[in-house]
């Protein structure tokens, strides 16, 4: 499997379904926007439960986004101690799939 194929297999898509309003949150999250996001497969079908995600790209409700989870979710911040398991790192403008045999 090529590096490109490995990267494509790790691609995580989601759809922004709502915004999380928090009057009080960890000070390391100050200045961030939290969204509810539905993970989706490459055909944009829902997968699993909605999650709370930290936005890093200016997402809006109904956007299709690219996201990372676990330790990778903290790589987008200078401070690796950000309490986040999911971070939105890109907006999907278009998704073209080629059928594979």
Describe the structure in your own words:
The structure is a single chain. With 101 residues, the protein is mainly β. The protein has a single domain, classed as OB fold (Dihydrolipoamide Acetyltransferase, E2P) (Beta Barrel). Helices cover 8% and strands 33% of the residues. The protein contains 1 helix and 5 strands. The chain has one helix at 3-10, and strands at 13-20, 33-40, 51-55, 64-69, 86-91. The radius of gyration is 14 Å and the shape is globular.
List descriptors.
disordered N terminus, 101 residues, five-stranded mixed beta barrel, 1 helix, mainly beta, OB fold (Dihydrolipoamide Acetyltransferase, E2P)
Question: How is the topology of this model organized?
Answer:
Blueprint lengths: L2 H8 L2 E8 L12 E8 L10 E5 L8 E6 L16 E6 L10
Parallel strand pairs: 3-5
Antiparallel strand pairs: 1-2, 1-4, 2-3, 4-5
Could you give the distance between the termini? 15 Å
Count of individual helical segments: 1
Q: What is the approximate shape? A: globular
CATH level-two architecture: Beta Barrel
> Which fold does the CATH topology refer to?
OB fold (Dihydrolipoamide Acetyltransferase, E2P)
What is the C-alpha radius of gyration, as a whole number of Å?
Answer: 14 Å
Order of helices and strands: HEEEEE
Query: What is the strand arrangement across the widest sheet?
Result: 1-2-3-5-4
Structural class: mainly beta
The proportion of strand residues reads 25-35%
| CATH level-1 class | Mainly Beta
Largest sheet: 5 strands, mixed, barrel
* Average pLDDT rating: 84
Fraction of residues in helices? under 10%
Number of strands: 5
User: Which spans have pLDDT < 50 for at least 5 consecutive residues?
Assistant: 3-8
How many structural domains can be distinguished in the coordinates? 1
The CATH superfamily is: EutN/Ccml
């Amino acid at each position: 499997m090529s590096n490109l194929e490995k990267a494509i297999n790790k691609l995580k898509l989601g759809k922004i379904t709502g915004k999380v309003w928090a009057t009080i949150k960890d000070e390391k999250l100050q200045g961030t926007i939290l969204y509810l996001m539905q993970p989706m497969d490459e055909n944009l079908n829902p997968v699993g439960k909605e999650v709370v995600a930290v936005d890093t790209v200016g997402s809006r409700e109904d956007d299709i986004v690219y996201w990372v989870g676990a330790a990778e979710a903290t790589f987008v911040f200078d401070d690796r101690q950000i309490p986040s398991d999911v971070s939105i790192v890109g907006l999907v403008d278009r998704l073209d799939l080629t059928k594979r045999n």
